[in-house]
Design a protein that fits this description.
Number of strands: 2
Number of domains: 1
Number of helices: 1
Largest sheet: 2 strands, parallel
Strand content: 5-15%
Strand order of the largest sheet: 1-2
Distance between the termini: 20 Å
Shape: globular
Helix content: 10-25%
Radius of gyration: 12 Å
Structural class: alpha+beta
Order of helices and strands: EHE
Length: 42
């Protein structure tokens, strides 16, 4: 449904992380410094 555009997910640019930065993304999530969704990009 996401691929077809029926469901849209908004993720702020500052909460998109390349997969190589997964450790940093997890640190930020654990520190509760995020709001809403975060996304790891392969």
């Amino acid at each position: 449904m996401i691929a077809s555009g029926v469901i849209k997910v908004d993720v702020a640019e500052q909460q998109k992380y390349p997969l190589k930065d997964a450790q940093r993304a997890h640190e930020i999530l654990e520190s509760r410094a995020t709001q809403g969704s975060s996304l790891l990009i392969p």
